[in-house]
Amino acid sequence: MDLFEYQGKEFFAEYGMPVSAGEIAFTVPEAVAAAERLGTPVMVKAQVHTGGRGKAGGVKFAADIDAVRQHAGNILGLDIKGHIVGRVWIEKASDIAEEYYASFTLDRSAKKHLGMLSVEGGVEIETVAETNPDAIAKIWIDPIDGLSEATCRDWVAAAKLPEPAVEGTVEVLLKLYRAYSEGDADLVEINPLILTPEGSVHVLDAKVTLDGNSEFRHPDYSQYDATQSRDEREQAAHAKGLQYVGLDGSVGVIANGAGLAMSTVDVVNQVGGNPANFLDIGGGANADVMAGALEVINNDPAVKAIFINIFGGITRGEEIASGILEAMKRVEIDSPIVIRLDGTNANQGRAILEPHLTDKLMMQPTMLDAARRVVELAS
Amino acid sequence: MSIFVDENTKVVYQGLTGSQGSYYGLLNRDYGTQVVAGTHPTKAGTDVDGVPIFANVAEAVEATGATASCIFIPAPGVRGAVAEAAQGGVKFIVAITEGVPAHDEIYFYNALKRDYPDVLLLGPNCPGIISPGRCNIGITAGHIAKPGGPVGIVSRSGTLTYQALYELKQKDVGVTTCVGIGGDPVPGTSFIDCLRAFQDDPETLAVMMIGEIGGSAEEEAAEFIKNHMTKPVAGYIAGVTAPPGKKMGHAGAIVSGGRGTAAAKIEALTDAGVRVGQNPTEAGELMADIVAGL
Question: What 3-state class would DSSP assign to B54?
Fold first, then answer.
């Protein structure tokens, strides 16, 4: 789950990292009131789950209250790469002498934690990696050893940070690693980490992605559930506990298993169609889950036809067929459905569906045939 | 021959007393797997349909000679269960459980490498392993696979694995071993571990590899195939049209920062001489075609 910058800063502050005082605001008057309490000058920062806010005009310096009013008015409601700004973070402005970059993430290939530190902060790290890869100091951390202070000092030295920034950076990095590992984060990133003219090291931005699978250790993470970026369909599917990703086509997709669901989306594309979604109903494919899935798909006004692609493993074809029929009794479906049922006892399952086939409920023998038919119906 | 398991593999099920554990554990036994024990900290001395329950893996190994374990413990307990299995003396651990935190996975991956280098972990979040006709550990429907070889299968996806087994059976092609390595970011067993074992297995003559978006395991596998494999490989990659930044059902199936795309994986595999199908059926046909030409 992705955190907004301000949530990330609150998360970092719990681990003792130096962040600026600030307040969240949903309206212009709230932004103005926040700035009055904090004292100008302040920064007005759009809170969205995407990068490139600055370039899009979503981050502004406000010297006085009038400027806060103006910037907050412009930023709230702004569309940044498809994300509409619904809240702004008002933060005490900081003087910046230098900008650095620091992050921890999981290196799937090395199967270690990867720390990256660079004197070239304030720009995207991917850009630095392309233009000046030597400016990024990397370390790989064995999760059993963790990050010791000695290793951390060597790392900061390797990154060639100037002397006045060393102590403060070591301190921030050790805390950042704690936040990353104890907090079960997939990613923690500070860009920029700044050195102020007075010589203190300070966290100016925060990008945090937490592992949703760790919620049993962190019950408070449920607070972030409401601020995930989901469209209406994804929200409805999420509420039903379905694995759903919204796409922008007209073919509703239901499949059992993540791999088969991905594959179904691919095949619909291959035969010239556009999937409306990815939806994995899991291995069992019972009537309850199927009914929930059909409801979510049916509520998507863009859907013109539905592709149910089920492969029976331990769950037998006849159970799956009965489940589909039972689910269809519970939900009134507007669009035609094409079913492909294969695997264990597929013939028995097909026999159960056979008497119910109409021009609204069709069956095709293979995944490709079914994809072609459903795409025809959707166009 | 098969890889990692065979008819002599004796399995202890951690979580056999739970609903999932008992359902699949007993199905595995019906298939012919030697299901010798279960564990539960407070139910030692009882049994599940005749399978004795022990307090922990060490006691189960001592009493039954179990050589492998299968974990059906809920996600919060998996880290402890993996440690218990390795300490208990089994050499092969299959973790079926989905939803294990990535930090736990990377921890026990490194802990096993350091303290128990001869122990192999499969999963978590995987369907398990089946050597048709000999041994089935996990949640694969045994009857959809044809025993005998000459094909070895390795896959990150459960249902696509079933699909592959089924397509090959329809074409009368047998399978030596089918390994589901799982859809998580840090799988205990990698594509390369399986490819190496298949390359060394005299009964396996060709390999089918099913990958998906996210990470770089397929690219690393392509490198291995190019440099170390003489046996032909057919492949399939799911998620060609997946939008970036979205987890597609599996925790590890995500394209982020332009990395982990299906296109890059397909290119790497094709470059390594792998015949990559456009869809699972085509991949099955390519595999059958390869087998016919052996």
Answer: strand
Cβ pair A258:B250 closer than 8 A? yes
Contact assignment for B103 to A142 by CB distance below 8 Å:
no
Contact check, Cβ <8 Å, A266/B158: no
B56 lies in some domain:
yes
Same domain membership, residue A185 and residue A131: yes
| Domain stop point among B122, B155, B176 | B122
Determine which one of A5, A91, A189, A295 is catalytic: A189
Structure confidence by residue, pLDDT tens digits, A191-231 = 999 999 999 999 999 999 999 999 999 999 999 988 888 88
Domain boundary among A62, A92, A122: A92
Same domain, A194 and A250: no
Domain containing B58 equals 10-122
Within a domain: B33: yes
Q: Work out the number of other CB atoms within 10 angstroms of the CB of residue A361.
A: 18
Q: Do B151 and B277 sit in the same domain of this protein?
A: yes
For residue A1, being part of any structural domain is answered with no
Q: Which residues contact residue A267 at a Cβ distance below 8 angstroms, ignoring those fewer than 6 apart?
A: A367, A368, A371, B279
**From A181, A258, A269, residue closest to B248, measured CB to CB:** A258
Chain B contact set for A311 (CB, 8 A): 159, 162-163, 166
Contact B243/A at CB under 8 A = yes
Please check whether residues B150 and B284 belong to one and the same domain.
Answer: yes
Q: Do B249 and A280 touch (CB under 8 A)?
A: yes
Region A122-150: what's the mean pLDDT? 94
**CATH code (residue B166):** 3.40.50.261
Q: Do A259 and B111 touch (CB under 8 A)?
A: no
Q: How far apart are CA A181 and CA A5, in angstroms?
A: 19
Burial bucket for residue B280 (CB in 10 Å: 0-12, 13-18, 19+): buried
Q: How sure is the predictor about A312, in pLDDT bands with cuts at 50, 70 and 90?
A: confident
> Phi-psi region for residue B258, left (φ > 0), alpha (ψ -120 to 50) or beta?
left
Residue B23 lies in a domain: yes
B147 shares a domain with B288: yes
Output the furthest CA–CA distance in chain B (Å, rounded): 56
Q: Which of A112, A217, A260 sits opposite B160 (nearest CB)?
A: A260
| A129 and A113 share one domain | yes
Same domain for A291 and A274, yes or no, is yes
Respond yes or no: is residue A376 known to be catalytic: no
Distance CA B125, CA A320 (A): 23
Q: Which residues of chain A neighbour B157 with C-beta distances below 8 Å?
A: 257-260, 262
Minimal Cα–Cα distance from A42 to chain B, Å?
31
The residue count of chain A comes to 379
Q: Is residue B276, in this structure, part of any structural domain at all?
A: yes
Mean pLDDT, rounded, of chain A: 94
pLDDT in tens, B95-154: 999 999 999 999 999 999 999 999 999 999 999 999 999 999 999 988 889 999 899 999
* pLDDT at B134 (0 to 100): 96
What's the N-to-C CA distance of chain A in angstroms?
Answer: 35
Query: Is residue A12 in a domain?
Result: no
Q: What is the pTM of this model?
A: 0.94
Q: What mean pLDDT comes out for the span A85-107? A: 97
Q: Is A189 a catalytic residue?
A: yes
Among candidate residues A6, A100, A101, A177, the one labeled active-site is A101
Question: Count of CB contacts below 8 A, A vs B?
Answer: 166
Could A144 and B114 be called an inter-chain contact, meaning their C-beta atoms sit closer than 8 Å?
yes
Residues B83 and B210 reside in one and the same domain:
no
* Å between B234 CA and nearest CA of chain A: 16
Domain boundary among A198, A225, A252: A225
